[in-house]
UniProtKB/TrEMBL annotation:
Keywords of this entry: Membrane, Transmembrane, Transmembrane helix
TM ranges: 56-81, 88-106, 112-133
Keyword Transmembrane on entry: yes
Top-level taxonomic group: Bacteria
Provenance organism: Microbacterium aurugineum
Keyword Membrane on entry: yes
Entry protein name: Integral membrane protein
């Protein structure tokens, strides 16, 4: 069976999400001092956390983000190869990401702008649309004897 466009597009969009993530990590690393001051300072401008501890926490956070994006990149490759479980996990992660951004907006009033999370939400929505297509599902389930894929256009 030939790989449908929806599956390939979904994998490409996931790869773009990974690239956007690594660009974000690079931007965070280049703005290290500003992030440390914004996140780890108290209301009166004094340091709430010692500088070395704050730096360690930022390194741990950026490394965790990097590991996450490497995992998501591997997941994109598995989606491209046609693994159904990877397609389902990718759609679940995209849904969860959209819900988290919505809850941030709803509870904390964090605006959804290009600077904050608009690009990632847009990519997540497009990933959901691509991977939930009937052709993507049929391709991912092509080797499953329990699934009988019939196409009905009524």
């Amino acid at each position: 069976m030939k790989r449908p466009l929806a599956t390939g597009l979904g994998a490409v969009l996931m790869s773009l999400r990974v690239a956007w993530g690594f660009i974000s990590i690079l931007i965070y690393a280049l703005n290290w001092a500003a992030i440390r001051e914004e996140v780890f300072s108290s209301e009166n401008g004094l340091e709430a956390v010692p500088v070395d501890v704050a730096d360690l926490l930022i390194v741990i956070g950026l490394c965790a983000l990097g590991v996450w994006y490497v995992f998501y990149g591997v997941l994109a490759g598995l989606v491209f190869a046609g693994a159904n479980w990877a397609r389902i996990v990718a759609m679940s992660f995209a849904s969860l990401s959209i819900i988290v951004v919505f809850l941030d907006w709803w509870n904390a009033g964090i605006p959804v702008t290009f600077r904050t999370s608009l690009a990632s939400v847009a990519l997540d929505i497009l990933v959901l649309l691509a991977l939930s297509a009937q052709s993507a599902r049929g391709y991912a389930r092509r080797n499953d004897p329990r699934s009988i894929t019939t196409t009905s256009y009524t």
